[in-house]
Amino acid sequence: MEIRTFDDLIIWARELHAHLSRCLAESATKNQEERARALLGYLSDHESELARITAEFEKQADPKALKTRLYDYLNNEHKPIKTHHTCDGHYDNLDFHGIVQEIFHFHDQLMDLYDSLAGKAEIPEAKELVESLRAMEEHEAMRLASQIGRMNDL
């Protein structure tokens, strides 16, 4: 997907979370480790919820911010988010800790992108939008860390 505006960014982020949810769900049925299967199932649900929450930004954001162009993103200054564009079974063979590392790395990359875009936003409405996206990601990552910590204690 070509990202030209903040609206495109939100759609892309929503689709990214939804795709990751599907891949995690698929791997949850294939992983041999019981704890890993439980984690993958939980993470799939969590990513699905993040896709839903991200979609709300499309509905509630300032129209001026949504139409703002992302020139810096188009200049390819940002490294692409590393994720598996196809459900290639990547998570099928990872253990609990490997899955946790991958998921937090994914969310860290997304938060770094939002930080970068917030610093370069040309209008206050766009800056506020991307900062809100970043805050949502951070909050959900903290919630995820808490839940995974509980799972790890079992």
Describe the overall structure:
This protein is mainly alpha-helical and 154 residues long. It has one domain (6-153): Ferritin (Up-down Bundle), CATH 1.20.1260. Helix content is 73%, strand content 0%. It contains six helices and no strands. Helix 1 runs antiparallel to helix 2, helix 2 (34-60) runs parallel beside helix 5 and helix 2 packs antiparallel against helix 6. The longest helix has 30 residues, at 124-153. The termini are far apart.
Entry summary:
By secondary structure, this protein is an all-alpha fold. The protein contains six helices and no strands. It has helices spanning 6-28, 34-60, 63-66, 71-74, 96-120, 124-153.
Q: What is the secondary structure topology, with strand pairs?
A:
Blueprint: H1 6-28, H2 34-60, H3 63-66, H4 71-74, H5 96-120, H6 124-153
